[in-house]
Design a protein that fits this description.
It contains 13 helices and six strands.
Length: 290
């Protein structure tokens, strides 16, 4: 179906962006290309080991928190199955599970998710048949600098969607979890849409700046609307991944990123967020405001 052009055993492809931006479509492409993206995934193809180890806002209070590097090293050991299953190592995992429970990070699965994550880690065995690997978890964009430190040849795909589609959506998890990293006020139901616009601006500006500075040609920004409608953008992504497809496989995989009814929903909603700021953010990232 496809072949490797380079040895990527130690250099992952990582996918991230704001929640609701369309990262799932890119993850599905990786999965179809036989990238190993983890063995504990949700329907959105998020790597839930990464979620468990790094989506912990109470412990990660700054972008240079030493907890990020520590958790990423643990994540690497889990993905590659060299995690030491000693009593001390198991205790560490259950301490993280306790943090999830006490902090109520996953409200609908307060107890089930962290305990299932620990069980998945302790029973995981890496399948070496996969020549290439990576993972998708939206929050990864927060840690590009530390990821680059751990994986100097990292490839990173930042997925974007029209800012007002996200502002008028319902996925504000990153805003509520990480507003403190961007020096934003604590969100609530009254201000969350206005803060989401600011969060979008600051988060994507930071990710694009760091990605270009540290990764150069190993960094790619993908606008989900373009990926769904432009064969040229799809071809750029395949070239970025350094795989070559047979014609039949190309046709099949090209169908994965499909235009969704929710794209452009902002046009149907009366704008309740600062029009001037909305225009500025849209223009900044080359999106139309109308």
């Amino acid at each position: 179906m496809w072949r490797n052009d380079v040895d990527s055993a130690s250099s992952p492809v990582v996918v991230g962006g704001l929640g609701g931006s369309g990262t799932r479509a890119v993850a599905a492409i990786l999965n179809e290309l036989d990238f190993y993206i983890g063995s504990y995934l949700n329907p959105q193809l998020d790597n839930l080991w990464f979620t468990f180890l790094l989506r912990r806002p109470a412990s990660i209070r700054s972008f240079d928190s030493p907890e990020i590097e520590r958790a990423l090293k643990l994540f690497d050991s889990v993905m590659k199955s060299y995690w030491g299953k000693s009593f001390k190592a198991r205790t560490q995992l259950y301490e993280l599970a306790a943090e999830f429970m006490m902090r109520n990070y996953v409200k609908r699965s307060r107890y089930r998710f962290p305990l299932n994550a620990v069980a998945s880690i302790t029973h995981h065995h890496y399948h070496s048949s996969h020549a290439r690997w990576g993972w998708k978890e939206p929050n990864t964009h927060l840690f590009i600098n530390t990821l680059h430190k751990q994986y100097p040849n990292l490839k990173y795909i930042l997925v974007m969607r029209h800012p007002l589609d996200l502002v008028y959506g319902h996925n504000f998890n990153q805003l509520y979890n990480w507003h403190h990293l961007f020096k934003l006020p604590k969100p609530n139901k009254r201000n969350e849409r206005a803060l989401m616009l600011e969060f979008y601006d600051r988060a994507y500006s930071r990710s694009i700046r760091i990605g270009n500075e540290l990764l150069g040609s190993n960094f790619m920004v993908v606008k989900i609307e373009e990926l769904c409608s432009s064969e040229k953008i799809f071809d750029r992504l395949i070239e970025f991944l350094e795989v070559k497809l047979e014609e039949t496989c190309y046709t099949s995989i090209k169908k994965i990123p499909a235009w969704q009814p929710g794209f452009g929903r902002y046009r149907e909603i009366k704008n309740t967020v600062d029009p001037e700021k909305s225009t500025l953010v849209c223009n900044k990232f080359n999106y139309s405001y109308v």
